[in-house]
Write a structure and sequence with these properties.
Layout: H1 3-17, H2 27-34, E1 68-72, E2 76-83, E3 97-103, H3 105-115, E4 119-123, E5 125-127, H4 130-141, E6 150-152, E7 159-165, E8 170-176, H5 189-196, E9 199-204, H6 209-221, E10 226-230, H7 237-241, E11 246-249, H8 253-258, H9 263-273, E12 279-283, E13 289-294, E14 304-306, H10 307-317, E15 327-329, E16 333-337, E17 341-350, H11 366-379, H12 384-398, H13 417-420
Helix pairs in contact: 3-11, 11-12
Domain Carbohydrate kinase PfkB: 73-296, 352-409
InterPro entries: Carboh/pur_kinase_PfkB_CS, Ketohexokinase-related, PfkB_dom, Ribo/fructo_kinase, Ribokinase-like
Organism: Acacia crassicarpa (northern wattle)
């Protein structure tokens, strides 16, 4: 029996002997944990090609229905245990709830894309074990095309322990990668070309970086734009960044990668170092996000504006009394970062939804939900302001349930109606 099987069985035995105090294990999670093979996959997904001219501008009332999004990256099984407070060393505590469901950055982001109505395809790898087949089945049920995924004979599928602290509303993740890792030669040329056929955009979470680089080079050759999730410094990241069109990164990444003294200066540095990037977004959790969009138009004034000062002026304009996500922006201007350089662009400041403490359950996967919504927004040709408020709304919906996928909204969700009309 694999280590993960042992862990899974132990978790379920603990559940049966010591039921959670509240919020019992969901029926879907219990089914996922006990019977990985019985999920009924959906009929084959439509892969109607969109044509080579993917940059055709869509009207605002022509939301994407069949846009294909290709993702390459991580999938896993998540074991989520909610606790009253994070344990101290050598403590023995009980969980207040337990959930087992699929996870992984790419798996989560593409599940979000599928629920919003697009046609995602995923390149990743699992083992030929119960957990691997469970991962595949769950993705299929949500509408993710898994036909390009690799299933190894033997080995173990990836899994993650997640401790959700009800007191601080934080989560701690302990990830165990799958084995053996995916090698580029496991993705045949025919599979690669089929996966990219008709794709509107390609997304990477910078896991499986060797395979990702092969996919990225072919996407560039075909003129398909690329979005990268730069969560942290990873092996192979720099090579992928040279090819990307859009970049979404975590709060600490811009300064860690550029060594700039402030986030605004780091964003300017990123656009200067990566001339193909159209915009970079840094997510700030409950503090919203900042986006720097490149512009070829220098605006009416040729005067340079200090990027830190400009961001401070935008922050002052934010209306903190509004609970729903909002977005304000500067005009197009020459943004100067002291000691780094100048770039022509526009800064956007997006706010996060103010979620009441009684409704905030778990932030696991909030960043993946945000990225899934950004992928949708690019396909729908949303304006930057609409994109950032939409992504914040989707991420907030996810935070109202336990796990990275449980709270992901569907296209028909009333909370999304104003964006999708």
């Amino acid at each position: 029996m694999s280590n993960l099987s042992t862990i899974r069985n132990a978790a379920l035995l603990n559940y049966s002997l010591n039921p959670p105090v509240s919020s019992s294990l969901s029926c879907s999670s219990f089914t996922f944990a006990l019977n990985f093979h019985n999920a009924s996959p959906l009929p084959p997904l439509s892969t109607r090609p969109l044509g080579k001219n993917f940059r055709i501008k869509m009207s605002s009332d022509s939301l994407p229905q069949t846009s294909i999004v290709l993702g390459c990256g991580s999938v896993s099984v998540d074991f989520l245990a909610t606790v009253a407070a994070y344990p101290k060393p050598d403590d023995k505590i009980r969980s207040t709830s337990l959930k087992v469901q699929g996870g992984g950055n790419a798996g989560n982001a593409l599940t979000c894309v599928a629920r919003l109505g697009l046609k995602p395809r995923l390149i990743s790898k699992v083992a030929d074990d119960a957990q691997g087949w469970g991962i595949l089945d769950e993705l299929k049920v949500d509408g993710v095309d898994t036909s390009f995924m690799v299933v190894s004979e033997g080995g173990t599928s990836p899994f993650t322990y997640i401790i959700v602290d009800s007191q601080t509303k934080t989560r701690t993740c302990i990830h165990t990668p799958g084995h053996p890792p995916m090698a580029p030669e496991e993705l045949s040329e025919s599979s690669l070309l089929a996966a990219l056929d008709g794709a509107r955009i390609v997304y990477f979470d910078v896991r499986l970086h060797e395979t990702a680089l092969v996919v990225a080079h072919e996407a560039v050759r075909k003129g398909i734009p690329i979005l990268i999730d730069a969560e942290r410094l990873r092996e192979g990241l720099d090579d992928l960044l040279k090819l990307t069109d859009y970049l979404v990164c975590s709060e600490n990444f811009p300064q860690a990668w550029t060594e700039a003294s402030t986030v605004p200066r780091a964003l300017v540095s990123i656009l200067l170092r990566l001339p193909n990037v159209r915009f970079v977004i840094v997510t700030l959790g409950k503090d919203g996000c900042i986006m720097l969009e490149r512009s070829d138009n220098e605006g009416q004034s040729s005067e340079e504006v200090d990027v830190d000062s400009l961001l401070e002026s935008l922050e002052i304009r934010k209306n903190d009394s509004i609970s729903n996500p909002s977005c304000i922006s500067s005009s197009v201007t020459k943004l100067k970062a002291e000691g780094i350089g100048t770039v022509c662009g526009r800064i956007y400041v997006g706010t996060a939804e103010k979620i009441p403490s009684s409704e905030l359950v778990d932030t696991t996967g909030a960043g993946d939900a945000f990225i899934g919504a950004v992928l949708f927004a690019i396909c729908a040709n949303f304006s930057p302001e609409k994109m950032l408020t939409f992504a914040a709304t989707v991420a907030a919906a996810k935070c109202r349930d336990l796990g990275a996928r449980s709270g992901l909204p569907y296209r028909a969700d009333p909370r999304l109606a104003s964006f999708l009309q």
